[in-house]
């Protein structure tokens, strides 16, 4: 069907009825779906949903079935963010070079990976090929399939309206673009697949996209011994390896039970730290099928289910887990034919995958480019260079391939749809253990009058420590393990070294729930991105495989602050009344913008490092309130000091002690040359940039989202490296003449409790609901976050109707 004909047919078949604040009964009969070009779908499908927007643009969607619910959600989301999602969909289809040119690049913020458009297109065409996506779609249960079709149809309705000239002034970034195109079912499942592999194959996108057999790159090989020696170089660290860097994304979460609260209620705090730009943002919505489902919370763009949320029965949140989700296998190739490798005494072919993409050249012409990439039976072939040396290269003796547990995970959406419809906290926990579909995040959950629950029951390669000991490559294995402990790096020469499968695992090659960490308590649990070990220091979790996380190891400054904030509250030492949490105290603590490095080291800095050369900085630091709030004067001095001092090899005088992991290491080593010089260096840097030493942090640190009148919006918080709990991370530029540009950090925030059996939830979407500058909801939530003006989420129908700013019904 021609594009213009599709638009006309779709608009003729749709109705949009404004409902004011009243019940939308009596809406026109929904007509027949006219279909989708290139994607027949279900020509007989019909959908009907009511959307009520409350303050700050939050959509509350009510429908009688999952297809209609998805339809309303897709349309509401498209009103706010259609351009960002469509750009991501064309990326996963392998069309960036076609639309944005050969020389362009982009960063997958959640994975910390930058790819050129050409490499990106070849990577996605390989890993998200038609067969993989068709299998994922075929495996979807009815709930996922219905909601996906509805969501996609809602998106397409709005796209058709834009192409027909409706919504003037909106979505300037794409309304006239060639890539404003209808979304297919395959597009939706590609999006799910991309989100599943953020913490795995995506990190190796460039290494997969550039893998060449040795016949095409003669003389580039190294022996395994030479590669091991190269990786032992003293200047090589984990940061030099794409899988050795920490993911930029993170999160904080608390579960507080009756023993930690003043009235015996349960409370939950959740706070992902995700990018403030691009498609890994979070969007808040409320989804209701009367009598069947009532769930509110946040989703990643393009997902028609709530991924972090709450209702009257339970609430949950997530943090990025330390477990590895993929493994690398060293293949023994045939020296006479490196396109074959040995497996269980037989030879298998490395599969060549010819690929073709379109490329927009600098003169505007479109050319075609071909490349062949490769797969083993485990997954894609990769080549890794470090310092220009092919340390994990493909030569006449060996090749390297990855297996991606989440690339095989067809239960991700099933897990979240099941949770969205769970009837109780017990049901929630049971569903997690049975489905094991959570891809790469820890979970904390609780419910009214319930204990608090933590788990890392997720999709993890089943690689127990004894398998690593038996099967890691002889020469390279110990070196890789020393750089990246826990990464499954195994010989790929037979089933004896392949991943194992637990009896209670729902799929091959992963751990079942019985071998994954979980904890339930009546006082508190937490996670702030370190491993499960100190979920609650009173009951350490131990004995799990190293691939899941580290035990008896030093915790990050942020994790230590996460723990200390609870401990200080419960022993009454935090300066607040009483020694338990109430809801207002929880909200105050989690946005108090404390810094663990300041708690540990400021006194030593002021007593030992202040001299004539740093008097000005010290005067400010002495008066500083010790926080990273927007009115704090001195927070930028401390951050720049710690940027210099914090990486010192001899930073602390008292080393880490696993018997006292929350309070060690400690005692700043002011005798260290690096520490001693750090304050003067920081003062000089700030002065050279023309920034006042006593400038309030809010005058330096702003969101890229400006207020309605165009003014920058000051943002509170600090960075991970300085031990901040309230996160406002900046790009790699750090401090510039313009200050700190926040590009990721606190994103969706929820604080939840229950009163008289009804949920009470408050929070923020820190970067606001819409990415469209023409939207009334482009910056309003950001301003509320800047002001720490917690937004009470409307949940009951009475609350929603009383606070409605727009109420409408869409049908087809």
What layout of secondary structure does this protein have?
Elements: H1 3-12, E1 15-18, E2 48-54, E3 58-63, H2 66-92, H3 96-100, E4 105-108, E5 113-116, H4 117-127, H5 130-139, H6 142-163, H7 185-196, H8 205-209, H9 224-231, E6 250-256, E7 267-275, E8 282-289, E9 293-300, E10 308-310, E11 315-320, E12 326-334, E13 337-343, E14 346-349, E15 351-360, E16 366-375, E17 381-382, E18 384-386, E19 389-392, E20 398-404, H10 412-420, H11 425-435, E21 441-446, E22 452-455, H12 465-471, H13 476-483, E23 489-491, E24 518-521, E25 524-527, H14 557-570, H15 583-590, H16 596-608, H17 615-623, H18 635-645, E26 652-654, E27 666-668, H19 673-688, E28 701-703, E29 728-730, E30 740-746, E31 748-755, E32 758-765, H20 780-786, E33 791-792, H21 797-802, E34 804-811
Parallel strand pairs: 3-8, 12-23, 28-30
Antiparallel strand pairs: 1-34, 2-3, 2-34, 4-5, 6-7, 6-25, 7-30, 7-31, 8-9, 9-10, 10-11, 11-21, 12-13, 12-20, 13-14, 15-16, 17-20, 18-19, 21-22, 22-24, 26-27, 29-30, 31-32, 32-33
Helix pairs in contact: 1-6, 2-6, 2-7, 5-7, 9-13, 10-11, 18-19
CATH fold node name of the domain at 3-204? Penicillin Amidohydrolase, domain 1
- Name the strands of the widest sheet in spatial order: 1-34-2-3-8-9-10-11-21-22-24
Distance between the termini: 19 Å
The CATH class of the domain at 3-204, by name, is: Mainly Alpha
Number of strands: 34
| Total of DSSP H or I helical runs spanning 4+ residues | 21
Helix content: 25-40%
Which term fits the overall shape?
globular
**Any low-confidence stretches, pLDDT <50, length ≥5?**
17-41
Mean pLDDT value: 93
Main pleated-sheet profile = 11 strands, mixed
CATH 4th-level superfamily of the domain at 3-204: Penicillin Amidohydrolase, domain 1
Give me the secondary-structure category.
alpha+beta
Strand content: 15-25%
- Provide the gyration radius in Å: 27 Å
Instruction: Return the CATH architecture of the domain at 3-204.
Output: Orthogonal Bundle
């Amino acid at each position: 069907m021609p594009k213009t004909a599709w638009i006309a047919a779709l608009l003729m078949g749709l109705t949009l009825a404004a409902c004011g604040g009243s019940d939308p009964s009596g809406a026109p009969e929904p007509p027949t779906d006219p279909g989708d070009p290139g994607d027949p779908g279900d020509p007989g499908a019909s959908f009907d949903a009511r959307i009520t927007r409350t303050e700050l643009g939050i959509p509350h969607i009510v429908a009688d079935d999952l297809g209609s619910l998805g339809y309303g959600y897709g349309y509401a989301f498209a009103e706010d963010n259609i351009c960002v999602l469509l750009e991501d969909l064309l990326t996963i289809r392998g069309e960036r070079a076609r639309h944005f040119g050969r020389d362009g690049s982009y960063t997958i913020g959640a994975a910390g990976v930058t790819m050129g458009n050409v490499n990106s297109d070849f990577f996605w065409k390989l890993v998200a090929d038609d067969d993989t996506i068709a299998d994922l779609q075929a495996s979807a249960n009815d709930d996922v399939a219905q909601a996906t079709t509805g969501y996609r149809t809602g998106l397409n309705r709005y796209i058709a309206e834009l192409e027909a000239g409706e919504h003037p002034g909106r979505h300037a970034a794409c309304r006239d673009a060639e890539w404003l195109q209808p979304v297919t079912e395959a597009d939706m499942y590609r999006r799910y697949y991309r989100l599943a592999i953020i913490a795995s194959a995506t990190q190796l996108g460039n290494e997969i996209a550039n893998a060449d057999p040795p016949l095409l790159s003669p003389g580039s090989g190294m022996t395994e011994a030479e590669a091991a020696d190269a990786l032992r170089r003293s200047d090589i660290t984990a940061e030099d390896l794409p899988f050795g860097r920490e993911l930029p994304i993170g999160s904080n979460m608390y579960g507080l039970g009756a023993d930690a609260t003043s009235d015996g209620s349960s409370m939950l705090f959740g706070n992902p730290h995700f990018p403030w730009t691009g498609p890994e943002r979070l969007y808040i919505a409320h989804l209701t099928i009367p009598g069947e489902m009532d769930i509110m919370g946040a989703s990643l763009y393009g997902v028609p289910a709530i991924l972090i949320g709450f209702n009257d029965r339970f609430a949950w949140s997530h943090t990025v887990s330390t477990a590895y989700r993929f493994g690398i296998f060293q293949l023994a190739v045939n020296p006479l034919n490196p396109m074959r490798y040995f497996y269980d005494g037989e030879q298998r072919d490395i599969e060549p995958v010819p690929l073709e993409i379109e490329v927009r050249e600098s003169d505007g012409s479109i050319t075609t480019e071909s490349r062949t990439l490769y797969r083993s039976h485990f997954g894609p072939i990769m080549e890794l260079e470090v310092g220009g040396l092919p340390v994990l290269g493909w030569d006449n003796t060996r090749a390297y391939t990855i297996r991606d547990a989440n690339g095989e995970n067809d239960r991700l959406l099933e897990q979240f749809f099941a949770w969205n419809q769970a009837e109780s906290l017990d049901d929630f926990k049971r569903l997690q253990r049975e489905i094991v579909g959570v891809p790469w995040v820890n979970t904390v959950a609780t419910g009214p009058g319930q204990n608090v629950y933590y788990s890392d029951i997720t999709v993890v390669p089943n690689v127990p420590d004894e398998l690593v000991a038996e099967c890691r490559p002889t020469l390279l294995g110990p070196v890789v393990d020393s750089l990246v402990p826990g990464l499954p790096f195994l010989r790929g020469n037979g089933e004896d070294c392949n991943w194992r499968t637990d009896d209670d695992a729902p799929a091959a090659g992963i751990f079942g729930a019985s071998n994954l960490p979980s904890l339930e308590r009546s006082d508190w649990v937490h996670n702030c991105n370190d491993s499960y070990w100190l979920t609650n220091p009173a009951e350490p979790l131990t004995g799990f495989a190293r691939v899941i996380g580290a035990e008896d190891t030093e915790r990050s400054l942020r994790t230590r602050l996460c723990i200390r904030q609870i401990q200080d509250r419960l022993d009454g030492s935090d300066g607040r009344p009483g020694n338990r949490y109430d809801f207002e105290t929880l909200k105050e603590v989690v946005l108090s913008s404390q810094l663990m490095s300041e708690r540990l080291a400021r006194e030593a800095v002021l007593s030992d490092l202040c001299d004539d050369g740093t008097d000005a900085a010290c005067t400010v630091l002495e008066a500083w309130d010790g926080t990273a709030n927007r009115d704090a004067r001195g927070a930028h001095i401390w951050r720049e000091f710690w940027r210099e001092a914090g990486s010192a090899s001899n930073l602390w005088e008292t080393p880490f002690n696993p018997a006292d992991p929350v309070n060690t290491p400690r005692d700043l080593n002011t005798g260290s040359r690096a520490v001693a010089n750090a304050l003067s260096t920081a003062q000089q840097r700030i002065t050279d940039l023309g920034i006042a030493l006593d400038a309030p942090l809010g005058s330096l640190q702003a969101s890229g989202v400006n207020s309605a009148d165009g003014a920058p919006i000051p943002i509170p918080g600090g960075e991970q490296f300085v031990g901040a709990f309230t996160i406002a991370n900046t790009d790699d530029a750090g401090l510039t003449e313009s200050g700190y540009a926040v590009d990721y950090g606190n994103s969706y925030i929820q604080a939840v409790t229950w009163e008289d059996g009804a949920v009470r939830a408050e929070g923020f979407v820190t970067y606001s609901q819409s990415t469209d500058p023409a939207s009334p909801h482009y910056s309003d939530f950001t301003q509320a976050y800047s002001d720490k003006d917690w937004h009470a989420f409307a949940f009951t129908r009475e609350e929603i109707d009383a606070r409605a700013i727009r109420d409408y019904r869409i049908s087809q």
